[in-house]
Task: structure prediction
Amino acid sequence: MNHSKLFQFDSQLLTDLVLLLLGLLSLAITILIIVLIVKAFRKYLNSSGSRTNRKIVKKNLATVLKDARINKGYTQEFVAETLGISRQTLYKWEKGTAEPNLSFLSELAKLYEINMETLISSCK
Result:
């Protein structure tokens, strides 16, 4: 019996088996990646409610800011000049397309004579 032919056959079979396993592994990894992408996309689609809620929060803060200014009888120009910002910036805050940072919220609370917690709670 010629053992060298048997050994060559086994090494070829082993090589084929390794290539088959590598192919199956790469296929499994590809399927896993596709599943993860689909899950992430579904999560993104289902999160539209939270994106909508964020818009509502901005509108709530915007409404509080605008109502407080009007209740004090202040114009946008007066408030903007007092804070050292542009009228357009104040307009964006009152429309909800931008939000003031914490230091401006503090200044607005003082200017409008309202509790800082009122402003912060409208940001949640």
Remarks:
- Helices lie at 3-46, 48-72, 76-83, 87-95, 102-112, 116-123.
- Residues 61 and 123 are 6 Å apart (CA to CA).
- The mean pLDDT is 84.
- The first helix runs from residue 3 to 46.
